[in-house]
Design a protein that fits this description.
Two copies of one chain form a homodimer. With about 575 residues, chain A is of the alpha/beta class.
C-alpha cells in the first residue's frame, strides 16, 4: 500500500506539473475552448474567456491556445450536469447504454441508487452495477440501497442488512446511503434502520432522504438522525420546511414523478444554493424524446427560474452535497466536464466533454469501451428466476378475492370489492404476483379492475419493489402462459394472446434490464404497448409501468402481493 | 478494527435513538433554549423557536421542553464560530489557555496551522499540538504546515518533507495542508512542493492558499494545483479574482494583519457564501481586549455587512469548506455549538454551549480538564535550545555590516546603508540572529536603525519563521547577556539593562509559548513592553512583534539572518 501511494503521488505530480505548465502558458493546452461565454457558478455571472484544458482538468480561464481549439463564440459553456438521484435500472438498459443516451444531453455524473437490482440480487446487484459502470464516460456514483426489501411484506430476492452494505463504503464511487424510505422506522428508533444510518455517518458519508410531507417533530427527528436531503417534495411548503432544517432539496423531474413546476420557484437567491436536480427514474422513451438534466434546466428557465441558479443546482450544489470536490464548476483545477449549448432558451446541447475528451456532439455520444463485468456476476444476473413451469391450475381461485381498482393516471388504487372470477365485460381481470426469487411457489391471486384488457394476458418481471412477476389476464391459461414466457426469457415484459406472445421485451439482466441498445428496447417497448392497447388496455394508464406499481404494498388502497391482495390501510390481507 | 467499528456503531445507535426520542417529544431534552430567536444560515432568516439539545446535538427546533431550560426571550442564538486560519502559537500560551480565552467569545472550532512550533520541533511540534488540543471544549482542527522551513535561507529546527506529513492525514482532526506560501515553487513546478499538494489531494483534503496579489495565469496555475482558499487578500479586486476562480476567501482580521474593512463588502449575496473569517494570529492583549471571531462579526456589521452573511461566514461556510459536516448551523442533527448574544449591534456574548454543554457565560469559560501531553514530547518541547554561553566577542564585527532600516507601523524595511559600530545617538544598534536549534554556532551580525533603544538589549526567541534568537542592543555585552538569559529560560523575551533583566516573558514551550495563564503572560508582556519603551524604544513600533519580523527573509528590503544581513531584492548577503 505505501508503494502504491508513492506511485499515485508520482503520477499526480506529473499530471499537476503539466496542468501548471499549461495554466502558466508555458505549454499549449490539450484543448482550448476559445472565446467561450461560460457560467461562473461562484459569482453567478456569465463571463467570456478561453478555457484551457490539460490532463482532463481545467488548467486556466483567460487567454490561451491549445493543440486543439474549438471556437465557442456565441456559445455558452456550462459545467457538466449531475443527476443527484436516479435508479439507473429504470432506463431498462445496461448502464453503458444509459450513458450513451445521456451524454449528448450534457450529463457527466449521475448518482444512482441500485435499489431495483439489489431487490433481485442483493449485494451482488450492487457489485454488478459498480462493475458495469467502471470507467464509463458518465461518472456513475452510488448511494447504497437502504431499504431492501422495501417492506417486510415484500418477498424480494435479498435482504440487505447494515453489515451487507458496510464493505461498499470503501469503494471510491460510493457516496453514501440512498433514500431512507422507512422514515417510520427511523422515527420509531428501529434498530436495523438506525444501524444503517449510523454506519453511513461513521463513514462520513451522505444519507439521502425520502419522506414526502413529513413535518414538525417527525421531520426534526428524521433529519437529526442524519438524513440531509429529500427528493419527494411536491410543494413549496414541504420543501421550505426541509430547507429550513438544513436538508438539500433535490427537485425531481423524471418519468413517473414530476415536481419541477411546483418547485422551480426555489431556484432563487434564498434557497437556490441548497437545491439539486434529479430524475429518480427515466424510462426509455422519455430519455430518447425529452433528454435528461438538460431538459429540466431548460424547463426551469421556461418556468421563470434564474438560468444560473438552475445550472448551479445541476452542478456545484450537487457536487458539494456529495463531497465531489473535483467537479461542478468552470474554474481552474476542476474536471473538464463541459457542456456547450446555444443559449438558455432553446438549450440545444452542441457538444459535451468529459475530463476534457469529446464525449458527445450534436446529439450523438462518441464510442467508448463497455465495462466488463466478471463472468460469475454476469451469469448470476442472467439467472434470477426460480419458478417452475406453471399451469392454469396455479391461477385458479377457490373463493372470492379482493379486486384492486386502478385509477387513470395514478398509482394509487381503490378497493373495488370482491370477485370470484374474471369478467372482461365488467373489466374485472384475473391478476397474480408470482414469487420468482427463491422458489417458494408463492402465488398471490386477486383481481384487477380498470386495466381494460379484453383477451390474453400481460406479464412483467418489473414489479416494485421486489420485482416478482405480476400478471393480469382474461383467464388462468393466459396468465400461466405469459408468466412461463417471462421465465423462459429470464425476465421481461410479455403481452400474450392467442396462445403466443403478441409482443415482448426481454429483460434478461436481473429480469429488469435489457442488454440491447436503448433504441431497440424502446421500439420493443412501444410495440408491446401498442399490442397491449390493441388488446383493450385502458388508454388512461401505462400498461406496464402502472401495472408494475400494483405490487407495491405501501401505497393505498389495495395491493397485490405474493401472498394475495393486501389492504394497505388496515395492514391486512383481504 | 471490525470490533471497534461494531462498538462505535452501537454507541452511535444509542445516541441516535435518544436524539430521536427527544426530537419526537417522547423524552425531555438535555437542554432546551426556550423561545430563542436564531439565525437560520440556510434561509438567511432569523426565526423564533425552542431549540432542543440531546447527546450534544440539536435534536429539534420547534416547541420543546428540557430537563434544563434557558429562557432566550429577546436573545439571539447563533451557531458556534469557527476561526478558519490561525497559528495558535501566536497567542503565546498553551492551547488550553487559548481555548479558555476564546470560548467566552463564542468560538467553538478553530483551524490551526502549527507552523511556528513545527519550525522549532518539526513533526514532533505537530504531534505536541495535537495532544495539547485533544478534547478541548474548543474543537481544534489542523492544517499541516506546508512550508517548514519557510525559505531555504532559514535555519529552522526542522525540515518537513511530504513524507513527514503523510502520517498525519490519518488523524481525525487533520483537515488538510496549510497555507502554501511558496506559490513561486508551485508555479515553477517544484517537485518537493507539488508532492505535498499531491498528497493532500490524494487524501481528499483541503489545501489552503497564501498568495497575495497573485493574478492572471499564475493564479490559474496556483488554483489548478488544488489550492482552494486564500486569506491574504487585502482588496476587493484581489478577492474577486480569486472568488471567480473558485477559491474561498478567508477574511482576515487578526493582530498583525487586518483586512476586514477592505473586504467586508464581500459579505453580500453574490460572494457571501464563499467567504470565511479568520485571524491568522492573535496576541495576548488583543485576545483579552478585543475578543475573537465575535469581534470580527460585530465590526463587519458595523461596516454595513449583512449580519446573517457575517454569521454564515463564521459558521456554515467554514464548515463546508473544511468538510466538517456536523456543524455550522442551528438545525436538527448539527452539533449543539451555540452562542447566545444580545443583538447584532452590541454583540455581547451571554453564553456559549459546546456540544450542548455550557462552556462559557458572561465572559468566563467554565473549567475544563487540560489535555495531557505525553512526557517525552513535553520534555522535548521544553528543551529546544542548543546554544552555549555566549560572550561579547560573539557579537563583535570586523568590518562594515548592513544596516536594516525599520519603518514605523510596517514590517517592511529599508536599506539604511552600512555601519561599523552601534551609535545610539544616530539610532544605529547592534543586532544579531543566533541560530539556536542545532548548535551550529551561526550568529548573523548586522545593525538596526529605527528601533530607538538607548541602552541595554532586547532579545526574543520568537523570530519569524525559524524562531532563532534575535537580539538588538547598544553594545555586544548587552547582546550576549540578553541572549544567554533567553537560553537560560528555555525561550522567551528578555529586556536587559544594567547587567540584569529589566523584564522578561518566559516562553519555555518550544521557546514560543508560555505555560502560564494568558492574563499572566499578558501582564508580563505589557511590563516588558513598558520596560523596552522606557529604554527608548521607538513608540511607533511594537518592540517585540516588529523585531520578530526582522529575521524573515522574504519581505523587502534588508533582513537579518543567522548568516548575516540579507538583501531580499538581490537575493544575496550584504
Amino acid at each position: 500500500m505505501p508503494e502504491r501511494r508513492e506511485d499515485e503521488i508520482r503520477r499526480e505530480l506529473r499530471r499537476m506539473r503539466r496542468v501548471i505548465d499549461v495554466a502558466m502558458g508555458r505549454e499549449a493546452a490539450d484543448l482550448t475552448l476559445k472565446n467561450a461565454s461560460y457560467v461562473n457558478v461562484f459569482t453567478g455571472e456569465v463571463l467570456t474567456a478561453d478555457i484551457a484544458v490539460a490532463e482532463g482538468l481545467i488548467a486556466g480561464v483567460g487567454s490561451y491556445s491549445g493543440r486543439e481549439e474549438r471556437d465557442c463564440t456565441g456559445r455558452l459553456v456550462l459545467p457538466g450536469f449531475l443527476d443527484a438521484h436516479i435508479h439507473l435500472e429504470s432506463s431498462l438498459v445496461a448502464p453503458a447504454e444509459f450513458a450513451r443516451a445521456v451524454l449528448p444531453h450534457g450529463t457527466t455524473t449521475v448518482v444512482t441508487d441500485p435499489h431495483e437490482i439489489a431487490n433481485v440480487m442483493g449485494a451482488d446487484g450492487i457489485a454488478y452495477m459498480l462493475q458495469a459502470t467502471e470507467g464509463l464516460p458518465v461518472d456513475v456514483r452510488f448511494m447504497l440501497p437502504s431499504c431492501v426489501p422495501a417492506t417486510p411484506l415484500d418477498e424480494s430476492g435479498a435482504e440487505l442488512e447494515r453489515k451487507d452494505l458496510d464493505g461498499f463504503y470503501g469503494h471510491p464511487r460510493v457516496q453514501g446511503l440512498a433514500e431512507m424510505m422507512n422514515f417510520v422506522g427511523v422515527l420509531a428508533g428501529d434498530e436495523a434502520v438506525l444501524e444503517k444510518l449510523a454506519a453511513a455517518r461513521l463513514s462520513d458519508r451522505r444519507i439521502d432522504g425520502h419522506a414526502p410531507d413529513l413535518a414538525g417533530n417527525g421531520l426534526n427527528a428524521y433529519i437529526a438522525a442524519g438524513v440531509r436531503s429529500d427528493h419527494e417534495c411536491h410543494d413549496l411548503r414541504d420543501a421550505a420546511a426541509k430547507l429550513e432544517r438544513g436538508q438539500y432539496i433535490m427537485i425531481r423531474e423524471g418519468t413517473a414523478a414530476r415536481n419541477l413546476e411546483a418547485l422551480a420557484p426555489l431556484l432563487n437567491e434564498k434557497y437556490g444554493s441548497r437545491c439539486l436536480l434529479c430524475t429518480d427514474d427515466k424510462h426509455p422513451g422519455d430519455l430518447l424524446e425529452k433528454g435528461h438534466i438538460d431538459a429540466i434546466i431548460k424547463r426551469a428557465v421556461g418556468l421563470g427560474a434564474d438560468p444560473v441558479a438552475a445550472v448551479k443546482a445541476a452542478s456545484l450544489n450537487a457536487a458539494q452535497y456529495f463531497g465531489l470536490h473535483d467537479r461542478g464548476a468552470v474554474a481552474p483545477g476542476y474536471l473538464a466536464d463541459l457542456v456547450i449549448i446555444d443559449d438558455f432558451q432553446s438549450f440545444r446541447v452542441e457538444a459535451v466533454y468529459k475530463r476534457g475528451v469529446l464525449a458527445a456532439e450534436h446529439g450523438a455520444a462518441m464510442p467508448f469501451p463497455v465495462p466488463v463485468v466478471e463472468p460469475g456476476l454476469t451469469e448470476r444476473a442472467h439467472h434470477t428466476f426460480r419458478v417452475g413451469s406453471l399451469t392454469a391450475e396455479d391461477f385458479r381461485n377457490d373463493g372470492p378475492l379482493g379486486v384492486v381498482g386502478m385509477v387513470d393516471g395514478e398509482i394509487t388504487t381503490l378497493d373495488a370489492g370482491r370477485a370470484e372470477a374474471a369478467d372482461t365485460a365488467r373489466d374485472i381481470l384475473r391478476a397474480a404476483v408470482v414469487e420468482r426469487h427463491r422458489g417458494t411457489g408463492h402465488i398471490g391471486l386477486g383481481f384487477l379492475r380498470g386495466y381494460g384488457l379484453k383477451s390474453g394476458a400481460v406479464a412483467t418481471s418489473i414489479s416494485h419493489d421486489s420485482h416478482n412477476i405480476i400478471v393480469v389476464g382474461a383467464g388462468p391459461e393466459d396468465c400461466a402462459a405469459a408468466v412461463n414466457r417471462v421465465v423462459e426469457l429470464n425476465g421481461g415484459i410479455v403481452v400474450w394472446n392467442d396462445g403466443k406472445p403478441a409482443a415482448e421485451v426481454p429483460l434478461a439482466i436481473g429480469g429488469i434490464m435489457s442488454s440491447e441498445p436503448l433504441e431497440v428496447v424502446n421500439e420493443k417497448l412501444e410495440a408491446a404497448k401498442a399490442a397491449a392497447y390493441a388488446l383493450g388496455v385502458n388508454p388512461g394508464i401505462d400498461p406496464f409501468m402502472t401495472l408494475s406499481f400494483m405490487a407495491l404494498p405501501v401505497i393505498p388502497t389495495l395491493r397485490l402481493t405474493t401472498r394475495g391482495v393486501f389492504d394497505v390501510g388496515s395492514q391486512s390481507y383481504v
